[in-house]
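Checked the freezer inventory, then went back to the computational side. Two predictions to log before the end of the day. The first one is the construct we discussed on Monday; recording sequence and tokens without edits.
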Amino acid sequence: MTASLTLYMLAASVLAGLGIYGVLIAGHLLRKLLALNLLGMAVLLMLITLGARGTGAPDPVTQAMVITGIIISISATSLALALLLALQRVTDETHLDAEPLPPVGEDGDAAGSR
């Protein structure tokens, strides 16, 4: 590997680490979504780096996979944002709670409220 490929791999590793840290630590769902996008882009950067061939042209199959990955990432992000907006409209919150909600019975009441 040349120095530039090593630098790209190091940058992708740092981005992946930041993405994993954000997914594990962030409580706000939008921040978790951004961390997942960062992690996905780090994986795509690693694919591009591994697909480079010395001094010749890069592998076209790897390029096609990365372009497809970018398109899938954009569509998954837009779906997740729509779901996040719907969650915010219903619950008026976008944070994950530390305590789970009590289970809801068949009549719509909480199980322990009787």
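The second is the one RB wanted added to the comparison set:
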Amino acid sequence: MRYVVTVGEERFEVEVSGDRVAVGGKTVVARLEPIAGTPMSVLHLDGTAWSLAMSYAHQRWAVQHRGRIRAVEVVDECTHRMRGLTGGRAGAGGVVRAPMSGMVLRLEVEVGQRVSRGEALVVLEAMKMENELRAPGDGTVTRVHAVPGVAVEKGAPLVELGPAS
């Protein structure tokens, strides 16, 4: 499985296959062992163990190692591509578009509604799976193009978002 991992301002493409993790052309054997009842985990990389304190909030990890805390975001490749189609995650302004062809199942918002980053906007059915499209940032719904029961093509505008008011 492929992921896009952002650590602070740096972005990495990561491929995970079993216990093998490839980053920047280098493959390592990796295993993360949470320590039950604590925020601590042990990360094993090619036989070397690293102690980490980890907590998850606001769709990001806070990872502490040797007294330094780093914000870490991990998203799968599909979500990363969807963000590209919906204008990314920095702010909600713009148009949320269909990441693939499919059928609009439900609208979760209406014009004038304030939304928070990550809040469901539209549910799209594609390849017999429900795909919940979420707000890329805080904002206000300014226009709804999607209609339940109507098929849309990849890239079709679904919802327009403006700044939070």
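For RB: The first strand starts at residue 2 and ends at 7. The chain has a mean pLDDT of 86. Let me know if you want it refolded.
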